[in-house]
Q: What sequence folds into this?
């Protein structure tokens, strides 16, 4: 029996979609399926090479190795994870740099009218900064995607120097998502046998001390209850964190992570899945799996970074695939929202909405050339009538 058939039977038999979070509040009996986009079909490429639905426009806000327009700041190579933060007169978009040794993160500050006010470095001298996550207190967690990688807490406005948060565990970090209800930070691990973690700080809002825990469940479970266990040695040496707890569940390359009203969604690239951890019920389920849609019809492959909106829509970026950001709606429809044709050797990274929800920022990490050093990276903004 094919993996697609086996998984479909297992998931549907488990009643996978009894979610309590925003995305699955409606009655829904299976993982997301292809369907019509709420924004309609994609139109031909615009002047910036982006395919968008009617009513949306794009602009390029930064290019790797070039000055951010209107500033004296050179934009970093290989732009990766990102997030937006409100200011008194606009907002800030922060972006990681996924390159060795100098990695770090930079920020672009926008005025209320969307014009660029300034750009600057907020973290430097770190290693392969891939994704990360925003905190409720307005800082950005920048994560190193290397063995024994670290988490750095940064200040988007540049008002303070970044600080290392090694008590959050030393492993191949990818993304982070804060759960203010349970006062924990969820963490993904980009390893083929990686784990899903949570950091439980001693004091919420202070990430200097606390416990690292790992999600535990049977190896073949895709839907059902889970538990958490403490990691004995968060430093991960000589025994890697993912190998310290025998009951830890393995995931095929953890990527993006996003928390919304009771559910933490995270992606795994090795099996093209979007998982949903129902934190209130301590239950794991599948929100999307390309093996659980009709063969040859999966619009979303190469799942990577993920973000969401107040409406409950999820936006999932592709690493490869056909270079799309797909939307997954609360009614369980998955469809392309935008596409970057001619950039097949790149990946889409860092999707994040401006505080008012009218603008979506993201990057093509390696651009049209696909240069592995990321020197052709492009950071975009899409403006338009996003669903409230």
A:
């Amino acid at each position: 029996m094919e993996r697609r058939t086996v998984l479909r039977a297992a998931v549907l038999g488990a009643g996978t979609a009894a979610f309590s979070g925003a995305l699955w509040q409606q009655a829904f009996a299976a993982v997301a399926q292809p369907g019509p986009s709420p924004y309609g079909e994609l139109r031909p490429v615009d002047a910036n090479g982006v395919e968008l639905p009617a009513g949306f426009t794009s602009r390029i806000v930064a290019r790797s190795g070039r000055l951010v327009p209107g500033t004296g700041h050179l934009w970093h190579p290989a732009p990766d994870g990102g997030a937006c933060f409100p200011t008194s007169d606009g907002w800030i978009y922060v972006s990681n740099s996924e390159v060795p040794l100098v990695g770090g993160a930079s920020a672009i500050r926008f005025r209320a009218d969307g014009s660029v006010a300034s750009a600057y470095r907020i973290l430097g001298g770190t290693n392969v900064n891939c994704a990360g996550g925003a905190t409720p207190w307005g800082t950005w967690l920048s994560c190193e995607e290397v063995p024994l990688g670290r988490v750095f807490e940064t200040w988007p406005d540049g008002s303070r120097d970044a600080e290392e948060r090694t008590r959050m565990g030393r492993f191949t970090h990818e993304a982070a998502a804060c759960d203010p209800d349970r006062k924990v930070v969820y963490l993904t691990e980009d390893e083929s046998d990686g784990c899903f973690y949570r950091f439980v700080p001693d004091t919420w809002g202070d990430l200097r001390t606390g416990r690292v825990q790992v999600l535990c469940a049977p190896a073949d479970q895709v839907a059902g209850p889970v538990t958490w266990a403490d990691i004995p040695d968060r430093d991960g040496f000589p025994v890697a964190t993912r190998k310290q707890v025998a009951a830890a569940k393995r995931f095929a390359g953890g990527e993006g992570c996003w928390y919304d009203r009771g559910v933490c969604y995270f992606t795994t690239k090795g099996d093209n899945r979007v998982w949903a951890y129902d934190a209130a019920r301590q239950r794991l389920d599948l929100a999307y799996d390309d093996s659980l849609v009709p063969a040859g019809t999966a619009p979303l492959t190469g799942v990577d970074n993920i973000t969401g909106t107040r409406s409950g829509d999820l936006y999932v970026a592709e690493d490869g695939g056909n270079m799309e950001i797909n939307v997954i709606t609360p009614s369980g429809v998955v469809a392309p929202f935008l596409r970057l044709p001619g950039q097949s050797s790149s990946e889409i990274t860092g999707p994040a909405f401006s505080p008012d929800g009218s603008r979506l920022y993201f990057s093509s990490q390696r651009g049209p050339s696909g240069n592995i050093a990321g020197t052709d990276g492009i950071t975009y903004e899409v403006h338009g009538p996003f669903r409230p």
Summary: Confidence is low (pLDDT under 50) at residues 1-20, 22-29.
